[in-house]
Structures are given as structure tokens and as C-alpha cells.
Amino acid sequence: MNMVILLLIVGLLSFFSVWLLVNRVMKLQAKQIEIEHLKSRVGLANKYTAEKQSFSNCWWCSLGKALAPKSKKELAKTQQQLFGAGFRNDKDVGGYFFIKYSTLIMTILGMLALWSWYSVRLEWAVLVVIIMILLPERILIFLGQKRLAQVSTDLPDFLDMCNVCMNAGLSYLVAIKRVSHELKEVHPEICYEFEYVLDQIQIGVARTDALRQFAQRNPTKDIQNLVQVLIQNEKLGSSISAALNSFSRRMYQEREQFLEEKAAKTSAKMAVVIMPFLMMPYLVLLVGERMVMLARGF
Asked: 56 Cβ partners below 8 Å, 6+ apart?
């Protein structure tokens, strides 16, 4: 009986000591996680401060910011176009308006000089000025479309690498961080977008909100479908690895079908181009014989 009581006392003391040790370790781990979280916030704050300092040193950016339209709607539209084209700093907005208005003023002065000295028609001068007014926005739209196409092209490779990392045991956020670091030199645009999502999550933005903003910054069909898949798995708690694997496989299949359709249409398009060159010899033979007979008749 005394042995049983002794064993119970030893068991209780062992359990209590292990519980205290585990509790202490968990508290230290939580404290370390909080410190790392604060470090990430401080790093983002330092980055933001450095960007603000560089903006204050850019005099033409400040001048362009002063020349920017006062309408918040138009300014937000221009910022969205700049973000879509890959210009994400605050100073890029001022630089854009400085370049736009300076080139417009130079064009107006050049056209006035050509009209007064070289008698260039006024209609051509006005047309060139109108083109210079519309050209910067068209260039931004073109760069944005090019960037979105590049992001959509790089997305399957990025997801495949994430699947490899998740199959190795990493969570999908850690896998995204690792793949973004590894593929930054090869696919910089899509890596920057996913790193921006991770930074938003680190500073306290909800995952679903960060993913929705990611879809708003990149309004492509593939990105929106990917965000829907991630949000759905976030709510239901299903396997993200299997969902990303099936999503990337579906993207490859859709692109393969698109390339097959494009190849099938190529023959018809080539026929339209080649047909005049094929018909030219026959026309020469048909018309040439008649011309020779008419020449002999005269």
C-alpha cells in the first residue's frame, strides 16, 4: 500500500514538473513569435520611412505631385494604372505627371516653332499635341496589360513550386515565402505580389482581405480564380495542396487547348496571306496570253 502511494506521489510530481516545463516553453515560444512579428513590423516601417525620404529628395516628383489633378477619383485611377504597370512607389505618381506635362509643354513649343518657322499645317500641329496628351495613359495601359500577361504566364510555375514545398511539409504561407525568395530573379513580378500579400498578413490584415486586394491589383481570370480557391479552402479547411495542384493542372490544360485552337486558326490566316501570291502566276498566264494576242492583232 505504501508503494502504491509512493508511485502516485512520484507520478503526480512528474506530471506537475512536465506541465510546468511545457508551459514555460510555450510562453517563451509565444514571446519569441511576438518579437519576430514586431521585428517584421519595424522592418516594414523602416522601409516606408526610407521611401518617404527618397520621395522628399526627388524635386521633380514633388513638382509633379503638385501638378497632379485635385480630383481624388482621377488620382486614384492614375495610381491604379501605375500599380498595374509595376510602378508602386509614391514618387512614381509625381514622376508620371512631371513627365506627362513636361513632354506636353515641349511638344506644344516645338509645334509652335514648326508652325511659325517652317509653315507646318495647324491641323497637324494640333493632332500631334492631342496624341501627346493621350499617349502617356495609353503607354501605362499597355505596360499594365503586358505585366498582367507575364504574371499569368508565371503563375503555373510558381504554384508547382509551392506544391513541391507543401508536399515536403511546409504550410502554404511558408511555401509561398520560400518560393518567392527562390524565384525572385526569374519571375520578379509575381514574387513581388505574393511577398506583398505576406507583408500584409504580417502587419495584421486578414488573409481573405489580403487575397481580395491581391485579386484587385491583378484583375486577370487566373488570379481571380486562384484567390477564390484559396478563400474557399480558408473557410472550409480543406487541403490547399490538392486544390492548388488541381488548379495548376487545369491552367495547363486550358493553355494547351488555347494553343491548339490558335494553331488550328493559323492555317486559315496563312491562306489569306498566301492566296494573292498563289493567284498572281495564274493571272499572269491568263492575262498575258490575251495581251499577246491583242498585240499581234494590232
From this structure: 62
